[in-house]
Amino acid sequence: MKAAIITIGDEILIGQIIDTNSGYIAKALDRIGIEVKEMLSISDDKQAILDTFALMQDTVDVVVITGGLGPTKDDITKKTICDYFEDTLIRNVEVEAHVIALIEKALQREASQMNKDQALVPSKCVVLPNEVGTAPGMWIQKGQTVFVSLPGVPYEMKYLIDHQVVPKIVKEYKRPFIIHKTVLTYGQGESVVAERIEDWENDLPSYIKLAYLPAPGRVRLRLTAKGTDRQFLETELERRLTSLCLLIGDIVVGLDEEETLEVVIGRLLTQKNKTIATAESCTGGKIAQVISGVSGASNYYKGSVVVYATEMKTKLLEVSLSTIEAHSVVSAEVAKEMAINCQKIFETDYAIATTGNAGPSKGDSDAAVGIVFIALATPDGVIVEEFNFGQPREKVIDRAVGKSLEMLQKEILKNVL
Amino acid sequence: MKAAIITIGDEILIGQIIDTNSGYIAKALDRIGIEVKEMLSISDDKQAILDTFALMQDTVDVVVITGGLGPTKDDITKKTICDYFEDTLIRNVEVEAHVIALIEKALQREASQMNKDQALVPSKCVVLPNEVGTAPGMWIQKGQTVFVSLPGVPYEMKYLIDHQVVPKIVKEYKRPFIIHKTVLTYGQGESVVAERIEDWENDLPSYIKLAYLPAPGRVRLRLTAKGTDRQFLETELERRLTSLCLLIGDIVVGLDEEETLEVVIGRLLTQKNKTIATAESCTGGKIAQVISGVSGASNYYKGSVVVYATEMKTKLLEVSLSTIEAHSVVSAEVAKEMAINCQKIFETDYAIATTGNAGPSKGDSDAAVGIVFIALATPDGVIVEEFNFGQPREKVIDRAVGKSLEMLQKEILKNVL
User: Which HAMAP family match (chains A, B) (predicted)?
Assistant: First the structure.
């Protein structure tokens, strides 16, 4: 089964909004064995929509469309669907009752005519009820292809994908198996990893595909197997993974599908009943964001301080003024004090601290752009490392976040194994 | 001039990575008057790439392609470009020298053969030097269409867009003018706004297009004018904007192109030399992130505390235990103490605090899912409001962030006008 995902909206084409809907839909379809062939973002323009529908017709089994379902004039998806399917809009009484109730409850006012017109749907479509918004999803077939139209508001789209679209596809279609395994490596670049596994890679069968996903400091290797015999695919993937780990076991840190470093760390901390907090300067809260983004993080993540202003390092984190004056605010000594004091304040087992200059211009210190000190307080003491991450700014921040997590994982393993 | 943006990579099609490159490129092209007709994400598959190139050939002037330029086997863009343009790869000596120097400097080792092969480029292409990475950009023409291929690593892509692609397009092409004006409104829903401006909207000329960009609590109205006479377009847009503001001036909070609420707030704080800090519980640092994401935020943003664990509210923010016991951790009283103490600790003019239950399950308090208290400490005292943002979790967080900023803007205006 093949799918395409279409996002409708000029705000995406002028770069005003980043399309995150397509990624969510792709992941949901991938999980049930549907291969997404293409994602497209197109204009709120009738002809562009019609052309794209025609291009997808009978080349994929499912087309998922988001956007253009609002009540205003620039939302033309519904009318265009009627044109494409030679259909007319009819009023759906269940949807209208839902819209009226929702507006009354949420906004304490009566639904306007424009609100009520959200209940107008193409007569040939199956309505997918939207419990969390006013625009319903629509499921409508032509030839070999089902077109599914969803609102573009992310949480409404997610609700409809999870509660309506995926269950309906699972019920109505037979699908092959797609299995991914992702191996997370760190410390070596893409080309070095590739050279080390060259023979292994050349020996892969045609139904197993390898992809390299490089990020600063780490490379993920994704193996994808596709076929009809799930048992066979699983066994074969496991066999290949084992031989891969024999080759590069020294740099492999995780094995599961979604095993990012922060997920691995989260599991380790939970298992060992350990806690963590962060004190960040140049990384501006991004380490906290990455750690707290893992589901279940409240079990081990106690909180963070972001000390943008230098004086806050002394005040909030009790870094001594004499340390700052003797060594500068970007220094190993300040990073160490930040980490130790953060560990004390939050009463955690571990604390990460960063101080550095991410650029583009020099800050409160004389440190060159790219210099970052990362300190890690552990139950056994504190370690600190100096890095030069170069530039630009976002690379410095990303690499500092990556290195912090690497240091943390190494130390946790040392302490708990 | 029309453009298309193509992203190559299976990691996007299975939802493992969100494509943020296309948005950046779209914004850069829009700024120089190039209209992006379509964005596509396609597979690392030779035939898919060839088909897409053929589809774009002579229908747009510029095709910008990212991804697939790494040194490993799954990176097939270069070979596919050779097939499409009936070309062969040759070694570019300048690029090779750059790669060798970069690897030596960054990694303190010699470049491998795989590194050096980054210098292989199609003979017909113009090389776009990449100062921040090993894979060069490529500019190659066929018929009426220029194909520009860039690496997918975001900061390398951004470097090449800013320093190579945009300057080259500006030098070599005549372009029309596209002007956007965005009006930010808040407090009323999309359909209410639409009804209020219906006559005004119907009266817009064909060369001015209106789009509604709704978000929880606010609606942005984007006007786009396109044509060859810049002066005429500017005047006409201004005239339409003035009449729009006469209609809905009571809910308009900003007028500029990129005027989000956080940008408006940043400008107000900078102008008046006021500062801000945040103390967040249920919003988990997102308010800090939104505020500090504005360029120049270090002028007014002092930092934040994220108090995930209840005990940290007492310890780090000195919220009194008796307040928590008397009123529960999700209460107006706790929010007020958090804000006042945050203002004191960071020595700022303003401080925002949030406490609530974003769901999906109940936390340390008995508050229903969706209940959020937002407190704002100002130079004149502290205000607090209670909200029920319903569910799901991300909607609760987004609306809490939006409401916090609205409350802040209102208070700043009150104090400084």
Answer: CinA_B
Give the Å distances, CA to CA, from B199 to A99, A113, B241, B244. 25, 16, 14, 10
B172, B187, B216 — which closes off a domain? B172
Closest chain A C-alpha to B325 CA, distance in angstroms:
20
The CATH number covering residue B278 comes to 3.90.950.20
Query: Of chain A residues 223-252, which have a CB less than 8 A from chain B?
Result: 224
Interface A–B counts its CB contacts (< 8 A) at 264
**Same-domain check for residues A388 and A310:** yes
Q: Which domain holds residue A340?
A: 261-415
What are B215's strand-pairing partners?
B218
Q: Which residue in A2, A6, A8, A13 has the most chain B C-beta atoms within 10 A of its own C-beta, making it the best mutation to test that interface?
A: A13
Distances (CA, A) of B366 to A83, B308, B334, B356, B398: 51, 16, 14, 10, 22
Whichever domain contains A223, its CATH number is: 3.30.70.2860
CA distance B239 to chain A (A): 21
Q: Is B292 found in the same domain as B246?
A: no
Q: ipTM, 2 decimals?
A: 0.71
A314 in the same domain as A297: yes
pLDDT tens-digit series, residues A56-106:
999 999 999 998 877 676 678 889 999 999 999 999 999 999 999 988 887
For A299, other C-beta atoms within 10 Å of its C-beta total 11
Domain endpoint, select from B205, B226, B254: B254
| B204 and B116 part of one domain | no
Neighbours of A375 (CB within 10 A): 26
Nearest chain B residue to A41 by CA distance is: B39
pLDDT (tens digit per residue) in A166-196: 999 999 998 888 888 888 887 788 888 999 9
Q: Answer yes or no: do B316 and A44 touch at CB < 8 A.
A: no
B30 and A22 in contact by Cβ < 8 A? no
Mutate to test the interface with A, among B74, B188, B257, B283 (most CBs of A within 10 A): B74
Place of tokens 């819209």: A99
